[in-house]
Amino acid sequence: MKSILVPVGSSKNAQSHLQYAVDFAEAFGAKIYVIQIYNVYTMSGTMIKVDEILERESLDFLNHHVSKVNTKNVEVIKKAFKGKLVETIDLVSRDLDIDLILLEPRVNSKKKDVYLGKTSGKIIKQTNIPALIVPEGFVYKPINSVLFALKSAVINKTDALEPLMNLKSHFNATLNLLLVKTPFHSQKDFKIGDDLKSEITSIKETENATTFQGVLEHYKEFNPDMLCVVRRKRGFFTKMWEKNSILKKEFYVSNFPVLVLSGLK
């Protein structure tokens, strides 16, 4: 894990989140790209170079923002981009060879009852880049145990598990697998490949309507430092595919980071 992307918004948690990102990157010897994305709606007859002004203001904001944290020995690169949020993050991630996006649950939302705001929700929902959602005010600590929740253990993409395995290997963490039998499961969904099986500490099977419900019911048994789920069209955050924000009362397991992998199939 060598390149980490940190989108910056206007939340009160932005400084704390960036410090976590620096501490996390230091553990891996990675560099950080701290970015802000702006959009311009041009008006007929406008003579002012709005793009240049907004880019300069965004970079000034990022420089000030980064100056507030202890960057230690981590390389922190600040960039401002013009464009639409999701498309720009996709392009930037490919161009910069990003391994992981570190996200605040609420990049811009000020609603206290929201766990995942619209901006973070869009990034999780509409991109296919591995992402780590870090709780607000969370202080970096080594990851000793991971709960990996799946409704299907079928893995067709050879590199899909790479972020999870990098974390597990780096921290020498235990990996507990929660297999959730949903109403439409098939037997092949629970055939675990040798590569994954060799990394697992324990396996638990449960029957629930969704993977989401399975985690809410059983996560306390494992007391993980991190939850890992898979991004699917109708995946873990089912409500996310219907709306971009999620309330805390709907996802009250919000006291540890959530690693969202790209699709396995």
List the helices and strands and how they pair.
Blueprint: E1 3-7, H1 14-28, E2 31-38, H2 50-67, E3 76-82, H3 85-95, E4 100-103, E5 114-116, H4 118-126, E6 131-133, E7 145-150, H5 162-171, E8 174-181, H6 194-197, E9 202-207, H7 211-222, E10 226-230, E11 246-247, E12 258-261
Parallel strand pairs: 1-2, 1-4, 2-3, 4-6, 7-8, 7-10, 8-9, 10-12
Antiparallel strand pairs: 5-11, 6-12
Give an account of the 3D structure.
By secondary structure, the protein is α/β, with parallel strands linked by helices. It has 2 domains: 3-133, HUPs (Rossmann fold), CATH 3.40.50.620; 145-261, 3-Layer(aba) Sandwich (Rossmann fold), CATH 3.40.50. 30% of the residues lie in helices and 23% in strands. It has 7 helices and 12 strands. It has helices spanning 14-28, 50-67, 85-95, 118-126, 162-171, 194-197, 211-222; strands spanning 3-7, 31-38, 76-82, 100-103, 114-116, 131-133, 145-150, 174-181, 202-207, 226-230, 246-247, 258-261. It has a 10-stranded mixed sheet with strand order 3-2-1-4-6-12-10-7-8-9, with helices on both faces. The protein has a two-stranded antiparallel ribbon with strand order 5-11. Helix 1 (14-28) links the parallel strand 1 and strand 2. The longest helix has 18 residues, at 50-67.
